[in-house]
């Protein structure tokens, strides 16, 4: 019985660590999360992500709920650019530039 409890605790700690340290990977494969579009405006400067530009933005989904999205791009986006990001939790699958009129 002690062995079963020990194994269960180790698995629980491993899953918790995976979620805490790599939430993006965890969200990518989590079947309980659904993909949704998040609309945001690029503000400020991107951070370096191994030769790519990493953006951390606050946006809204189609239900007008505030969401945080993180994505990287191979080109630098100008501040004021509007983007639509296909996100699943903190994992961002793709992004595309849109016009302001397409914002919800």
UniProtKB/TrEMBL annotation:
InterPro entries: DUF1093 (IPR006542), YxeA-like_sf (IPR036166)
PANTHER family hit by this protein: HYPOTHETICAL CYTOSOLIC PROTEIN, YXEA FAMILY PROTEIN
Protein known as: YxeA family protein
Organism: Shouchella lehensis
Organism lineage string: Bacteria, Bacillati, Bacillota, Bacilli, Bacillales
């Amino acid at each position: 019985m002690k062995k079963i409890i020990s194994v269960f605790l180790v698995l629980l700690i491993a899953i918790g660590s995976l979620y805490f340290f790599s939430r993006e990977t965890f969200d990518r494969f989590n079947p309980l999360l659904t993909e949704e579009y998040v609309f945001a405006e690029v503000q400020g400067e991107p951070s370096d992500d191994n030769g790519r530009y990493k953006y951390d933005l606050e946006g809204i989904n189609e239900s007008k709920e505030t969401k945080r999205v993180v994505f990287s791009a191979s080109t630098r986006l100008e501040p004021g650019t509007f983007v639509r990001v296909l996100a699943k939790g903190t994992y961002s699958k793709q992004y595309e530039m849109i016009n302001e009129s397409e914002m919800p």
